[in-house]
Design brief:
Length: 94
């Protein structure tokens, strides 16, 4: 038996809210990221030598950014454009 009590531990709505708040990349940027990532990956597979690995890593990073909807650089510089407020002050997904 656990010594700590977590009243909100297994509530699906709270887990979904946590996941949506972690996202800081809008859907349009996610689509651009995945398309760019695929293009850079294709270019990386065609290259040889020193250029190949950086291209593959950049393409994979862009696809991961699109998949998760979270950008660590946006987090570091405190950009939060995933949710924008309505006229009444309530957040709405962009």
């Amino acid at each position: 038996m656990s010594l700590t009590y977590h009243p909100f531990e297994n509530i699906p709505a709270i887990e979904a809210l946590h996941g949506s708040l972690r996202k800081n990349v809008p859907d349009f940027e996610r689509a651009v990221s995945v398309l760019s990532g695929i293009g850079i990956l294709k270019a990386g597979f065609r290259k040889h030598g020193f250029v190949k690995m950086p291209l593959l890593l950049m393409g994979a990073a862009l696809i991961a950014r699109a998949w998760t909807g979270h950008c660590p650089i946006y987090e570091d510089i405190e950009v939060q454009n995933r949710l924008k407020g309505n006229d009444d002050g309530s957040p709405s997904a962009v």
